[in-house]
Amino acid sequence: MSSTRKPLDGLAVGTMLILCLCWGLQQVAVKAAAPSVNPILQIGARSALAALMVGLLMLWRGPRLSLRDGTVWPGIVTGLLFALEFFCVAIALMYTTASHVSVFLYTAPIFLVLGLHWLVPGERMAPRQWCGVLLAFAGIALAFADGFGGPATTWQTLLLGDGMAVAGGILWAATTLTIRATALSEAAPTTTLLYQLGIAGVILVALPLAAGNAVVTPIGTLAWASLIFQTVVVGFASFLAWFWLLRRYLTSRLSVFSFLTPLFGVAFGVLLLDDPVGLGFGGGTLLVMAGIVLVNLRSR
User: Fold this and answer.
1) Phi and psi (nearest 5°) for 37?
2) Residue 176 and residue 257 in contact, taking contact as beta carbons nearer than 8 Å
3) How many CB atoms lie within 10 A of CB 149?
4) Contacts of 11 (CB under 8 A, 6+ apart)
5) 58 Cβ partners below 8 Å, 6+ apart?
6) What secondary structure does DSSP assign to 88-100, as a single string?
7) DSSP alpha helices (H): ranges in the chain?
8) Which of 166, 207, 219, 246 has the fewest CB within 10 Å, making it most exposed?
9) Which residues contact 248 (CB under 8 A, 6 or more apart)?
10) Which residues are 6's β-sheet partners?
11) Do 250 and 114 touch, CB atoms closer than 8 A?
12) How many CA atoms, within 13 angstroms, populate the side-chain half-sphere of residue 131?
């Protein structure tokens, strides 16, 4: 298959909207099951189970995993980066607010387009598109601005909270950049996903077990529904669709859609968990949408 990627069309836009909606609902699903299962253990278990599903799919439909196609080392790296990202997010949430984490984690598309601009010639963006990325990030900051009040900032908040959230964003960007700039770029989506989920699943299950934080209370119907959704819809179906998109479309254009994910998360939190929302949320949403449109406008 050619390494040339194309701009987004209707299929890509529609698929990305569905993926961002699923990833936004994932945040609510993790929160719903948190009283029963440690969030990191949730991510680890869903990654391991989804990896098993991907492996069974590969046995049925192919292609089989190969050790000679140049994907082994990039695959190991993506799995490690994926696991480290969630570890950083977990640490960040211990020292700062969820609003801070949402804003700083979603610096990821900025780091990603910077890396793509320098490393992948076909992904370079024009000044207008850079403005769109920054506009979308400004929208995220505005939407979550209400969460930046409260107690005075401490060094723990800055270094262990906000700093670890930014580190999570960098790791997220590095994961996607590794996929785009290595042999994984042309690998089957199932191959890429198996590496990422399998390695991350082992690490993210082992970490809470080693730390003694893997306590699981009796799991009710809501928690089971959350875990099934995270495994089948998020870990298996949505990531498979994401890697399929990465093989066909410009990664920089796809990544800017991820700014919608925390907005969907807030919307589902309001609808399903009665979470409060500030006045800036509507204005921030409009800025995010304007930024996405600006990035994906085709030049004449």
Assistant:
1) -135, 130
2) no
3) 9
4) none
5) 64, 65, 190, 191, 194
6) HHHHHHHHS-HHH
7) 10-33, 39-61, 72-95, 98-105, 108-119, 127-143, 155, 163-181, 189-211, 221-228, 239-248, 251-255, 260-273, 280-296
8) 219
9) 5, 6, 12
10) 249
11) no
12) 7
Tokens of 141: 């900051």
User: Contact at 8 Å (CB) between 230 and 30?
Assistant: yes
Nearest to 46 by CA among 166, 163, 202, 156: 202
Query: What DSSP letter does each residue of 160-208 carry, written as one string?
Result: IIIHHHHHHHHHHHHHHHHHHHSGGGGS-HHHHHHHHHHHHHHHHHHHH
- Residues in Cβ contact with 64 at an 8 Å cutoff, skipping those fewer than 6 apart: 58
**What pLDDT, in 10s, does the model give residues 43-71?**
899 999 999 999 999 999 888 888 788 88
**Which residues does 249 contact at the CB level (< 8 Å), separation at least 6?**
5, 6, 7, 8, 12
pLDDT tens column, 214-272: 666 778 888 899 899 999 999 999 999 999 998 899 888 898 888 888 888 778 777 77
At residue 175, what is the residue type?
T
Instruction: Spell out a b/e string for 9-39, using b for 16 or more CB atoms within 10 Å of the CB, else e.
Output: eeebbebbeebbbbbbbbbbbbbbbeebbbb
Nearest CA to 220 among 65, 46, 37, 56? 37
Structure tokens at 266: 């807030």
Out of 27-36, 161-170, 194-203, 205-214, give the one with best mean pLDDT: 194-203
- Give the Cα separation of 238 and 53 in Å (integer): 13
Q: Which amino acid is at 221?
A: T
Cβ atoms of 101 and 89 within 8 Å: the answer is yes
